[in-house]
Amino acid sequence: MRKIDKPDDATIEAQRAALEQLGAVFIEENGGGIGVRLKFTAAERSSFQCQRQGR
Fold first, then answer.
1. Which of 11, 17, 32, 39 would staple 7 via disulfide (CB 3.0–4.6 Å)?
2. What burial letters (b/e) apply to 35-48, b meaning 16+ CB within 10 Å?
3. Binning pLDDT at 50, 70 and 90, where does residue 2 land?
4. How far apart are CA 9 and CA 35, in angstroms?
């Protein structure tokens, strides 16, 4: 079995910062578990909704 080591704290922070800069929002434990979501502006959300509806 192949073992995967945990990256060091600096690597984790660099990855997190890069993802946040691209719009990822990290959600802390809040009873429903931790998670990540993408952050969009109102205009971007509207554009996505129109695309899904075929407009």
1. 11
2. eeeeeeeeeeeeee
3. confident
4. 19
Please list, in sequence order, all residues whose beta carbon lies within 8 angstroms of the beta carbon of residue 16, skipping any fewer than 6 positions away: 26
Instruction: Report pTM.
Output: 0.58
Write down the residue that tokens 């060091």 correspond to. 8
Give tens-digit pLDDT for 6-31: 999 999 999 999 999 988 888 888 77
Per DSSP, what are the bridge partners of residue 38?
24
Q: Which two tokens stand for residue 12?
A: 């984790």
CA–CA distance, 3 with 15 (Å, rounded to integer): 21
